[in-house]
Design a protein that fits this description.
Radius of gyration: 20 Å
Helix content: over 70%
Distance between the termini: 69 Å
Low-confidence stretches: 1-12
Order of helices and strands: HHEEHHHHHHH
Structural class: mainly alpha
Strand content: under 5%
Oligomer: single chain
Largest sheet: 2 strands, antiparallel
């Protein structure tokens, strides 16, 4: 009986170590992406000469529109080209995406008080950290919960597109509340999914490296969207 238990523990140990290594790589790249985004957002957002490239007195410039919508293209390119692209190219696209997002997020410094931006970022980091720990440590399968959150995400996208034409402040408020709930839940779900994936894939391979970047992208998106939803709810406008 003791030998059997030892064999089970011995066989499960490598998978746990692989999961730890994999999720460590995922979080490392997520933090790199967030740092790159934060530095560029602050740099552009607090430099009037740079912001003039994106926003003019009559509205957003052509470059501003490109910066706003380019991140969608990067995500689609990474998703559909995952199997064809090499690891260096996937990594370059991720870093390029994070840089473009930094320029895109520079607009928040024109709209919100800088103190509320810092405060909201701190709240986001604390919330994200708690949900990441929950997702990593819980023994409950969050698959069904994650599917429900994904349904909520699609609902947010559709409602946001509709509200672009309606322009309802009440609807925007409701979308932001639902968004906070959805991206908080998705954080726990994505971390558990990444942990499970890490236990099943061999570390050190090109596939594992590419999957780590895609995992970092998922968590990056959870963090950024949670931050933006909280900022829309609690940020002090100028």
């Amino acid at each position: 009986m003791q030998n059997t238990e030892y064999q089970i523990l011995e066989s499960s140990s490598p998978s746990k170590e692989m999961a730890k290594t994999f999720i460590s790589n995922v979080f490392s790249w997520m933090f790199v992406g967030l740092m790159l985004t934060g530095v560029l957002a602050y740099w552009f957002g607090n430099n009037p000469a740079y912001m003039q490239l994106l926003v003019s007195e009559t509205g957003m410039t052509p470059l501003g529109y490109v910066i706003m919508f380019a991140p969608i293209g990067f995500v689609l390119l990474m998703s559909y080209g995952f199997n064809k692209f090499s690891y260096p190219l996937i990594l370059a696209l991720f870093l390029g995406y994070a840089a473009i997002m930094g320029l895109s997020l520079s607009f928040i410094f024109l709209v919100y008080d800088i103190g509320s931006i810092y405060l909201t970022f701190g709240i986001t980091a604390a919330t994200f950290g708690l949900m990441a720990i929950l997702g990593y440590t819980t023994q409950i399968d969050l698959t069904k919960f994650g599917s429900f959150m994904m349904m909520g995400l699609f609902g947010i996208v559709i409602a946001s597109l509709i509200n672009m034409f309606v322009g309802s402040e009440k609807m925007d408020y409701i979308i932001s509340i639902i968004g906070v709930v959805v991206f908080t839940g998705l954080t726990a779900y994505d971390v558990q999914k990444i942990k499970t994936m890490g236990a099943e894939i061999e570390t050190g391979t090109a596939s594992a490296s590419k999957l780590a970047i895609m995992g970092a992208l998922n968590l990056y998106l959870d963090f950024i969207n949670l931050f933006l939803m909280l900022l829309r709810l609690f940020g002090d406008r100028k």
